[in-house]
TrEMBL record:
Keywords: Nucleotidyltransferase, Transferase. It comes from the Bacteria. Its EC number is 2.7.7.8. This is Polyribonucleotide nucleotidyltransferase.
Length: 696
């Protein structure tokens, strides 16, 4: 049955068509927000997937270029693998919704979002987030929703709800907040040093808007929602837990996990697992879920230690950061490098500088091609966690971590006019035991300064965790969580920023939301920690950006020319500019506004290229002195080239102070001679004189 629902949302009409399309999906919402159209579906398998101990949720965000009237580039003219934006959007949809599915649910679930039309006033990412929640809520898939998502921008200090694409790109805040009817369940933010109190105001403004959307979704569920289907529970039998505790009492499990060395803890758990496998050798049905049972036993032990005893597995205080270390210049010949270590988490970051022609060009769902001048890439090899597996390129997690560190540093980067370079930072994970993305932020900040990038301020990041009890006021916030506290805890709240304010937030939880006091305490704790990291650790390794780029980095000279002269520099089919490049070995970029960047490693050749460009773009006037190369000799004089494509003539009478009969008596092809400009002759050619060059 086709039903249509509408609500006013941030000054625009949100329309949801139910039952109009995709009827065979468990749930489908045909979303219209302005002229943005996204088809959102939720589909579940009939039976659980065998042999797994996790919930197999897959979220897809499909960007179709027909939605913005484009044909894909390349040879096959169809969309290829998901873009970075599509992957990040999928992650933002996944993170708030995953905890709302039953923990013992093992049926495959796919949330698919097909972007079919894009209105620049209504961002399709937001529509997909809302549509996924609606499609799942009205479906028969078990789900503890509904949930809703709102985006907040800020321009000139004013908060904007669900900003347009232009406002999102040019504002000081990119905030995405997901909520249930009671609590905040996800926060994602990029910010231009927003103060903590302003960020909290924006978060809870979004939370208020989410409540109106949830009421709207509840109306739809009441009218067209399906009854939730029964499913096969994969919960661990209580009798297995009882049997495990008889063999491994709580104090023994506590002893096994209470260590600050990850490898020792893993060995302890391995020994316990072998002991239990031997004890339950005759109970095949128990062996199938033994791994999950041991995981849950560890989880209960760690959570009890932290919440009730205020003891962390590595013995730290609740607000204590692990041992820190920072250094720069550990990799020779690269343009900039730094390493940041926090406990058993270690990141090495390498920065590469290049001319602006090396920016990344992205053909996405935007009105114009997007250029990325700063690129942050994050790699997570298996050896960093003591495992072995082949490298298959970056996965969604790696792309997400790289994007978070990138977002953290963008607000402090110099403008193109101040620093005309493309910049790439690569974070290599040497060792991982919790919050490598925050270590990447710290390492990248130091590597940028070591490379001579004049960033405006230092940036650092840290993560807070959470363990909750039975009531909302029974909780403990943990500063600087390690891997075990992340696995068994309820929250990973990452915040980056400067001394003045926040530059990025990413919050993931495993429970049904956070109260405001928890959010406030996490933001306060992360501020205290990042200030300590910057003042006591990072600044002692490098306190400010180096004044010049490194020895092996390309140097760039910028000059401004009349935009009308760009064609003279480029020449017919690029002949002139290619000749300059060939003669000097430099790279040359020219903007439409006439900004010319000359890039190279040989200063003399760079100066030569600049001189050539200046000659080409200068209107010749009488009295100017030049040095040119003899390229042609005629009976009446010689032609000289002063720069690629720029020529003038010296009449035979202007070659020597003495009378000569033949030009060849004084000049030969290839000679370099100094001349003075006489203006233009009767034929409009630039005329020069050798004999009239002033003597010094």
């Amino acid at each position: 049955m086709y039903k249509q629902f509408t609500m006013e949302l941030a000054g625009r009409t949100l329309r949801v068509d139910i039952g109009r399309v995709a009827a065979q999906a468990n749930g489908a919402a045909f979303m219209h927000y302005g002229d943005t159209v996204v088809l959102c579906t939720a589909t579940a398998s009939e039976k659980p997937r065998e042999g797994i101990d996790f919930f197999p949720l897959s979220v897809e965000y499909e960007e179709k270029l027909y939605s913005v009237g484009k044909i894909p580039g390349g040879f096959n003219k169809r969309e290829g693998k998901a873009s970075e934006n599509a992957i990040l959007t999928s992650r933002v949809i996944d993170r708030p919704m995953r905890p709302l599915f039953p923990k013992d649910y093992r049926n495959d679930v796919t949330l698919n979002n097909l972007v079919m039309s894009v209105d620049p006033q209504c961002r399709p990412e937001l529509v997909a987030m809302l549509g996924s929640a609606i499609a799942t809520s009205i479906s028969d898939i078990p789900f503890a929703g509904p949930c809703a998502t709102t985006q907040v921008g800020m321009i000139d200090g004013e908060l904007i709800i669900n900003p347009s694409q232009e406002q999102w790109k040019n504002g000081d805040l990119n905030l995405t907040v997901a909520s249930t009817s009671e609590k905040v369940i996800m926060i994602e933010a990029g910010a231009n040093e927003i103060p903590e109190d302003k960020m909290l105001e924006a978060i809870y403004k979004a939370h208020e808007i989410n409540q109106t959307i949830i009421a709207f979704i509840n109306e739809m569920v009441a009218e067209v929602g399906k009854a939730k289907h029964e499913y096969t529970s994969c919960a661990v039998p209580e009798e297995l837990f009882a049997a495990i505790k008889e063999i491994v009492p709580p104090e023994k499990m506590e002893e096994a996990v209470f260590t600050d060395v990850k490898q020792v803890r893993e060995e302890n758990i391995r020994n316990i697992t072998e002991q239990l496998e031997e004890a339950f050798a005759e109970k095949e049905e128990w062996l199938e879920v033994l791994g999950e049972a041991i995981y849950q036993y560890q989880k209960k032990t760690v959570r009890k230690m932290i919440l009730k005893d205020h003891k962390r597995p590595d013995g730290r205080a609740i607000d204590q950061i692990r041992p820190l270390a920072a250094e720069v210049d550990l990799i020779p010949r690269v343009h900039g490098s730094a390493m940041f270590t926090r406990g058993q988490t270690q990141i090495c970051d390498v920065v590469t500088l290049a001319p602006l022609s090396e920016v990344q060009r992205i053909d996405g769902l935007d009105e114009n091609e997007v250029n990325k001048r700063y690129m942050h890439h994050y790699n997570f090899p298996s050896y960093s966690v003591g495992e072995t597996k082949p490298s298959r390129g970056p996965g969604r997690r790696e792309i997400g971590h790289g994007a978070l560190a990138e977002r953290a540093l963008i607000p402090v980067l110099p403008s193109e006019e101040e620093f005309p370079y493309a910049i790439r930072a690569v974070s290599e994970t040497f060792e991982s035991n919790g919050s490598t993305s925050m270590a990447s932020t710290c390492a990248s900040c130091m590597a940028l300064m070591a490379a001579g990038v004049p960033i405006k301020k230092m940036v650092a990041g840290i993560s807070c965790g959470l363990v909750t009890g039975e009531t909302d006021d029974d909780y403990i916030v943990l500063t600087d969580i390690q891997g075990l506290e992340d696995f068994f805890g309820d929250m990973d709240f990452k915040v980056t920023g400067t001394h003045e304010g926040i530059t990025a937030i990413q919050m993931d939880i495993k429970i049904h939301g956070l109260t405001r006091p928890i959010v406030e305490e996490a933001i306060r704790r992360t501020r205290e920690a990042r200030l300590y990291i910057m003042d006591e650790v990072m600044s002692k390794a490098i306190s400010e950006p180096r004044k010049e780029v490194g020895e092996y980095a390309p140097k760039i000279i910028q000059i401004q020319i009349d935009p009308a002269k760009i064609g003279d520099v480029v020449g017919q089919r690029g002949k002139t500019i290619n000749a300059i490049i060939e003669q000097t070995g430099v790279k040359i970029d020219i903007s439409d506004e006439g900004a010319v960047s000359v890039c190279g490693t040989d200063q003399a050749m760079m100066d030569k290229a600049v001189k050539m460009i200046e000659i080409i773009t200068t209107d010749f006037e009488a009295g100017q002195i030049f040095v040119g190369k003899v390229i042609s000799i005629k009976e009446f004089g010689a032609f000289l080239e002063f720069a690629p494509g720029k020529e003038g003539m010296v009449h035979i009478s202007k070659i020597s102070r003495e009378r000569i009969n033949r030009v060849e008596d004084v000049l030969t092809l290839g000679d370099m001679v100094k001349v003075v400009c006489l203006g233009k002759d009767k034929m409009g050619r630039i005329s020069f004189s050798i004999k009239d060059v002033p003597k010094k």
